[in-house]
Amino acid sequence: MPKIAIIGAGGYVFPLRLIGDLLSFPALRASTLSLMDIDLSRAERTAAAARELVRHYGFPTRIETTTDRRAALDGADFVIITFQVGGIEAYRLDVEIPRRYGIDQTVGDTLGPGGVFRFLRSAPAYQAIAADMHALCPDALVINYANPMAMNCWLLNRLGIRTVGLCHSVQNTSRMLARHLGVPYEEVRFVAAGINHQAWFLEFRRGSEDLYPRLRDVMARRHLRPSDGGTPAEDRGEHSEADRGASVYEGAFERVRTEILAAFGYFHTESSHHASEYVPYFRKSPELITSFIPHRWDYYEICAAHDETGRTSDLLARLKAELTPSLEYGALIIESMVTGTPRVIYGNVENRHLTPNLPEGCCVEVPCLVDGNGVQPVAVGPLPPQCAAINRTNINVQELAVAAVLSEQREHVYHAVMLDPLTGALLTLGQIRTMVDELISAEAAWLPRFVQPSA
Fold this sequence. Notes:
This protein is of the alpha/beta class. It has 20 helices and 12 strands. The longest helix has 25 residues.
């Protein structure tokens, strides 16, 4: 039975959800789960809930906790990464400092100043994990859940580690689109490809029917203003109270993505709130932000206000009532590799002749076949040129951030943020340099390599 190491297992909810997914599959119930966190009390908290779940069902699962990363990795078959270096305090700096310069990030964990600095903080941990894996479990597969997804996976690939990065935006967005069209999800067939948080639905079909003409019409009528060729549903009063209280991923207010669909021809995989950070069009001023996104959704504020203990208790109760897997791909990958059961998932992998109009070696999100032979990415061919062009504006940032880490050159940190589409639309080069200096100073405890200016 496999050994599965979870690095960063002290989170309140997500590690337990992953454990619930793993235990949903009979073939994985005799696994060893090694829960590693730098704070043993946090790892023990997750382990206590996991052990209660195992006792409830009478499974033979072995659950161990440790602060020793090497002990967790020793002999591991799978390594799941879920950590956030610096926690909520570093995250606060990622969003508050750029906001003083006019860069309002609704999430700030994937691109822009927030995404770059989250990656810079995380990189030493990834490099240490890679070194340990080469010594202790060289054939293990890393399943990365931590953002910034593309930068983290790109670095692991450069370090020679077998890696697949997992997100839930393809699953959630495809379901949201099916609901918008009133089509049963099990009847939908689609192909998506691009980069994480900006993969494009290249096909969206129901049998022989191309659903894209209906999708363009429905989304325009529901989410574009009259001057854009539609009337948003919120203006017509068509959203229910349940819609208004729903997650943004449910698609209640999708003007940004619908504008991108209308302009570039394809719908992509991240919510309008988050998607608005990756392009220069929607967040130029508070007034413009409100115009496109009238109901603010701020992930930092949500994280800071979480009642995590209560959410963990609720999740444990649900798992004890019914042990069914979530939409996450992680446990599906492990079960397929252990049993040989073939599945198709969407993963973030190294671009090796998969999408030829994106740079070789960058991190792309594409369909992957998974079975006993591992994760096998599918070559989807070239993206529509306009979609690839948008992706490349984001890949520029990712590439320079990875270069900063591998070269330890502070100048590349400036370059990465300077190339961010939203930051470049709002700040001068001098202002960007000043902002980056302030971020490095504020986060110096996590960024010793970059505290001194490059020679």
